[in-house]
Amino acid sequence: MTRHEALKHILAPLSDGDLTLFTTGMISREAFNIRDRAENFYMIGSMGLLNALGLGLALQAPARKVWVIEGDGSALMSLGTLPLIATFRAHNLIHIVLDNEAYESTGGQPTISAEVDLAALAEAAGYERVWRVSDPASLQKALREAVDTTSLTFIRVKVSGRAPEGLGRVSLTPEQIKQRFAQALTQA
To answer: pTM of the full predicted structure?
Structure first.
């Protein structure tokens, strides 16, 4: 399953009030082109900070699902945040790592995720539900459970492939992203 295919599956079950945060680079670009919405926050230029932002948001908006969608490179840059997230047990946080074993946005250099099991790290940190998926059926099953549960969830999705040819950039400025997302936070 490619990252693009995985993102299509992930974005499909989002409810109107769900808040989604996307890491910098190709994941933000693909998500923007698949299903842009006011409740989407695209992190521009700050790899490794997304899951901490997601935790803060989940704690401040406990009535809404908060989806953190990052790559293996981003997750590896912020491993110290995993136990912090698990300690707070944000019941509304769904943390998804799309693992293609590469820093694609900077040229495809390999990460160490082929040797480091990110899902095992999430389990060791104390995440309540941890999934390892690599195909559409298991991803859909994990997503259904994540939506239906009130448990802190981590889903590691092994993906392949590069971004689609001619993939456009996020056409919003960081200021526009922030303003639009802030407005979405005050609604519902």
So the answer is: 0.95
